[in-house]
Design brief:
With about 375 residues, this protein is mainly alpha-helical. Helices cover about 65% and strands about 5% of the residues. The strands form 2 sheets. It has a two-stranded parallel sheet with strand order 1-4. Strands 2-3 form a two-stranded antiparallel ribbon. It is globular, with a radius of gyration of 23 Å. The model has no long low-confidence stretch (mean pLDDT about 90).
Length: about 375
């Protein structure tokens, strides 16, 4: 039942007592294979606490669970329902970890680099998840530990084992298992986040922050790591800026003529002379030119870097002639980062896609402290 795992770590996501009873009932029903009854319980929970995001995120997870076990049109239908509920959950709480993770997985443009468990280990973890949902923690722990023995590279088994101790507030024992997961698979962002939670509960604030930075370095698109770091820094008086940048131009190749076309958002066309329109037009034209050239060596990251770099260069030239402000605050922040020579880092950390993984790993190797320096000096997040 990985799609609806309750292993969300320490979060600010909550629900009232009546809603929690219904969510627990839904989890227990799903563990017994009673899918419709579980869904009904989640929807009753939504009525019991209309302000909580959890009924929608758990409903999203349920449909994600069904999608994992379906194919073809039925799978597509379940995925669409999962995403609809996940997005609804975020309207209640933008930090909901379950909803954010489901959306992240649906939108990633390349396979994850995490270890794929053996079937035996995966089956053991699924059995453990059913037991965990019913709060039968000792039995769940036994399944997770056996999965870790069966497949020593399966870091998630250690994460879930640690969570059995975490929910019982046995912080040191939870920490040991989360740390084991992170050491086995350093790219497991969830392992680092859970480790941070366990460290924070023990008053180890600096270590907790370090773990979150490691989680960001592992998987920049896992929003809960950023959310927790943001909260931690705010407690120290530091406010992080957000790069809420939506790409408003793209390029497509006509299958018949093989000619590229630049596609702009309709809103940009209403301000043809605006700084935003100029920027995204140049961005789209650069992508279209690269598409027409069909360079086999071009990677998704190199294309994005080239397009943004060119658009910023043209923007800088236009600024020298006539200073203009961007309507989009995200573009204004990107202009600032580009002027500071931080464009490449900004793309890798703030606009990350899984297809950028080769360049990201090379960058981290060349800049061992790069993530920490960028995040803490620039005070910026996705």
């Amino acid at each position: 039942m990985s799609a609806i795992s309750l292993h969300a770590g320490a979060t600010e996501v909550g629900i009232n007592a009546a809603g929690q009873v219904l969510l627990d009932r839904g989890q227990s029903l799903l563990a017994q294979g009673q899918v419709q009854q579980a869904f009904d319980a989640y929807r009753e929970a939504a009525k019991a606490d209309p302000a909580s995001s959890l009924p929608d995120s758990m409903s999203a997870g349920l449909f994600g669970y069904l999608a994992e076990r379906s194919t073809g049109d039925q799978r597509a239908k379940f995925l669409a329902q999962s995403l609809a509920f996940a997005r609804s959950a975020l309207t209640h709480n933008s930090a909901d970890p379950i909803a954010n993770e489901l959306i992240r997985l649906a939108e990633q443009d390349a396979p994850t680099h995490l270890h794929a468990p053996t079937k035996e280990a995966a089956d053991l973890v699924e059995a453990g998840e059913s037991l965990f949902a019913q709060r039968r923690l000792p039995e769940a722990l036994a399944k997770y530990e056996l999965a870790a023995q069966v497949d020593p590279l399966y870091s998630a088994a250690w994460v879930f084992a640690g969570d059995c101790f975490y929910v019982e507030k046995r912080w040191a024992e939870a920490e040991a298992r989360f740390r084991k997961a992170a050491s086995i698979e350093p790219l497991n962002g969830q392992a680092w986040r859970f480790l941070s939670d366990a460290l924070a509960q023990q008053g180890k604030k600096q270590d907790a922050q370090d773990a979150l930075l490691s989680g960001i370095a592992a998987q920049p698109t896992q929003r809960p790591n950023w959310d927790k770091l943001d909260t931690m820094l705010r407690a120290g008086g530091v406010t992080m800026a957000r790069l809420n940048l939506r790409r408003r131009a793209s390029a497509t190749l006509d299958p018949a003529t093989h000619k590229p076309t630049v596609n702009l958002d309709k809103q940009l066309l209403d301000k043809p002379q605006g700084a935003d329109t100029s920027f995204w037009t140049m961005y789209g034209m650069t992508l279209a030119t690269a598409m027409a050239q069909k360079d086999p060596a071009a990677s998704p990251f190199s294309l994005e870097l080239q397009a943004l770099r060119t658009a910023l260069k043209v923007d800088a030239d236009l600024q020298e002639k006539e200073p203009r402000s961007f309507d989009d605050p995200g573009l204004a922040l990107l202009r600032k980062l580009g002027a500071q020579g931080q464009l490449e880092t900004a793309i890798l950390l703030l606009m990350y896609r899984e297809s950028y993984r080769p360049e990201f790993e090379a960058w981290k190797k060349a800049h061992p402290n790069g993530v920490r320096e960028f995040v803490l000096l620039q005070n910026v997040r996705p």
